[in-house]
Design brief:
This protein has 644 residues and is an alpha+beta fold. Helix content is 41%, strand content 20%. The strands form 7 sheets. Strands 17, 18, 19, 20, 23, 26 and 27 form a 7-stranded antiparallel β-sheet that branches. Strands 3-2-1-12-13-7 form a 6-stranded parallel β-sheet, with helices on both faces. It binds ligand ME8.
């Protein structure tokens, strides 16, 4: 029987639309699922939506619709996003599904019947955004220690779950199963949390009704986390002990963000112990995707909408960035600049160029048909062959340890090796020889490397894998598996079909201000030709005078939707009003700008930045720390005055 792999993502709250942080977890899960399928394992991949609780009820109320209508609309958008991102899940559990209702009531009833749930009353604190109960001693300045928002005092009759009773057993389990909580830093945090004392957990609420009724007492609804965690069993048909439960439980991997590790490594395993079910093999708590070093969240207004990014860049650059940029387990920063740089450097430059130049040469030297590798390999050929031949196992080993970025680094090392191979073996020189056998081998080796890259890339970047496969003139990709990542399976005689570049370079100048462009020039691999700023060049006065610098008064300043670095300014330059788009939003609030007299270049060719016309450029200086200050004059100098 083939090895099996059951993996899950958190089921997300439809309290709002999903952002790139949610897409991160789901993309990782999808790539793992696709990889294990590709490696011949039997995979079950489940995601879903966590639709009950006070937070959702309040959100629906605020919108003036029923909670069900509210969640129906948002959950449809979840599914739409996953489809766009090529997420191939096997099941999507909605906690409003009847099957889930049955599973939760069965779990509650069983634990109650055996005496691990009892009735008492709760008086304490509750964080609604996190749907978490807190004892006073864990609060920080009266705020939720997780999300730092205010908590509410709750006083109500409740059912309690005897967490405390199971704490010693859980600690022992964690100690004996080092793979259970990963990465290791999170294991230590969880162990410390348990050792500091577990209180019994309140598992029902009475002050609102958007939830699953407690089976023995319909005044109560089941606490939303007790409800949500059960989804991992719902997907297997629990409480029926059928084929699905038998085949897939325990789960191999619950993939979650680090902030919900406590629920998954304390409450959930104790629920399972009480149900007499085995615990999941691994709960992996990954880091956060940060935006300007802060966790993205809707309430902070710093979220990045994946749909907007996909529309602009396509799906695979986003998938690639999420998995490559962040060391899995740790926090990582999202920025548009980093996304563009990654796409240009790794996808357009390294991968795109390798495919393009290889297929162009093949067209030129062999009319696009893969030749027989006639010559025996020299040391350089052999190094490439060995590298490519070991790639499949190397990627598999990284993924078994949840090192996604390592896996991608390994693929890109082979791509880098192949690009270097082109330069080392210089096919254009071999083409001058009468004997074409060496040229044939070199070209075969390059196309064969690309075939291996396409296969290993596909689980991470499905569209890219398919496009490469097509250009390589190969068929039947869906039937290929890890055993095809083996040197020499490319049939000579294959007719390739070179296409358009898969990743055209993203030209940033068109949409970003000069400051951004300048930063790009300093980056390791510029995405596009940039204007060099000459240093130490002596110019004549006539050159300087070509530049018409004038004093301008800022009349209005406004943010630009979707461009967090830009502000749109209406300025008076004496003779006329102008609009200028400037990259100063992170240094000045719009209200601080109105009335200032600044210096602008009046005769700069107008440009469009993010769809907004910019008719001129303002002058500013940057400190070594990166803060920016506008060059200004006092109110004594009227708008329109020439600066010389
Ligand atoms: O917690 N960086 O749902 P949720 C990385 N319903 N990952 C992020 C992220 C960020 N900035 N923001 C969100 C819930 N995530 C519960 C789960 S499971 C039984 C119930 C991802 O909508 C990450 O996986 O708040 C995180 O754990 C999850 O979304 C939280 O989603």
């Amino acid at each position: 029987m083939s090895e099996r792999f059951y993996l899950t993502t958190p089921i997300y709250y439809p309290s709002d639309h999903l952002h790139i942080g949610h897409a991160y977890t789901t993309t990782v899960a999808d790539s793992l699922a696709r990889w294990h399928r590709f490696a011949g394992r039997d995979v079950y991949f489940v995601t879903g939506s966590d639709e009950h609780g006070q937070k959702i009820q309040r959100a629906a109320l605020a919108k003036g619709v029923s909670p069900q209508a509210y969640v129906d609309e948002i959950v449809a958008s979840f599914k739409g996003l996953w489809e766009k991102m090529n997420i191939e899940y096997d099941d999507f559990v909605r906690t409003t599904d009847d099957r889930h209702h049955r599973a939760v009531q069965a779990v509650f009833q069983k634990i109650y019947d055996q005496g691990d749930i009892y009735k008492s009353s709760y008086e304490g604190w509750y964080c609604t955004p996190c749907e978490t109960f807190w004892v006073e001693s864990r609060l920080e300045d009266g705020h939720c220690p997780d999300c730092k928002r205010p908590v509410e005092l709750v006083e109500e009759e409740s059912y309690f779950f005897r967490l405390s009773k199971y704490a010693p057993r859980l600690l022992e389990y964690i100690e004996e199963h080092p793979e259970f909580i990963q990465p290791e830093t999170r294991r230590n945090e969880m162990v410390n949390f348990i050792k500091s004392g577990l209180e019994d957990l309140c598992v029902s609420r009475t002050t609102f009704d958007w939830g699953i009724p407690v089976p023995i007492d319909e005044k109560h609804v089941v606490y939303v986390w007790f409800d949500a965690l059960t989804n991992y069993l719902t997907a297997l048909g629990y409480p029926e002990q059928g084929e699905l439960m038998e085949k897939w439980w325990p789960a191999d991997l619950h993939l979650v963000g680090k902030e919900i590790m406590r629920f998954h490594t304390i409450i959930w395993p104790i629920m399972l112990m009480a149900l007499d079910l085995p615990l999941p093999k691994t709960v992996f708590g990954h880091g956060w995707l940060l935006f300007d070093s802060d966790k993205m969240s809707k309430s902070k207004g710093n979220v990045v909408d994946p749909l907007v990014l996909i529309a602009e860049f396509g799906v695979d650059p986003i998938r690639y960035f999420l998995m490559r940029e962040v060391s899995f387990g740790q926090d990582g920063n999202f920025s548009r600049k980093a996304l563009i740089e990654r796409t240009n450097a790794d996808l357009a430059n390294d991968l795109g160029n390798l495919l393009n130049r290889t297929l162009s040469m093949l067209d030129r030297y062999f009319s696009g048909i893969v030749p027989e590798p006639a010559a025996s390999p020299n040391a350089i050929d052999q190094a490439l062959i060995d590298h490519a031949n070991s790639l499949g196992d190397a990627v598999d080993a990284s993924l078994r340890q949840y090192k996604l970025n390592d896996a991608l680094v390994k693929i890109w090392q082979l791509i880098g090796r192949a690009n270097k191979y082109v330069d080392e073996r210089a096919p254009w020189n071999l083409a001058k020889l009468d004997d074409k056998s060496e040229l044939a081998s070199v070209m075969y080796n390059l196309v064969e490397t690309l075939r291996i890259v396409a296969l290993t890339i596909k689980p991470f970047l499905p569209e890219t894998g398919e496009k490469m496969w097509q250009q390589l003139g190969l068929t039947d990709l869906a039937a290929k598996s890890l055993s095809d990542v083996k040197w020499g399976l490319l049939p000579a005689g294959t007719k390739t079909a070179k296409g358009d570049p898969m990743f055209p370079r993203i030209e940033v100048e068109k949409e970003e201000p000069a400051k951004e462009t300048q930063k790009k020039a300093e980056a390791k691999k510029p995405a596009a030709p940039v204007q060099e700023k000459p240093e130490g060049v002596v110019i004549g006065i006539e050159d300087f005078l070509k530049c018409e610098l004038v004093v301008a008064e800022i009349m209005e300043a406004d943010p630009i939707k979707g461009a967090d670095k830009l502000l749109k300014l209406q300025v008076d330059i004496g003779s006329e009003k102008r609009q200028i788009v400037a990259g100063i939003a992170q240094h000045y609030a719009p209200s601080d700008l109105v009335g200032r007299r600044i210096i602008v270049v009046k005769n700069l060719k107008p440009a469009k930045l993010r769809g907004e016309l910019s008719e001129g450029m303002l002058l500013a200086a940057t400190s070594p720390e990166g803060t920016l200050e506008l060059v200004s004059v006092s109110q004594a100098i009227p708008a329109g005055s020439r600066v010389k």
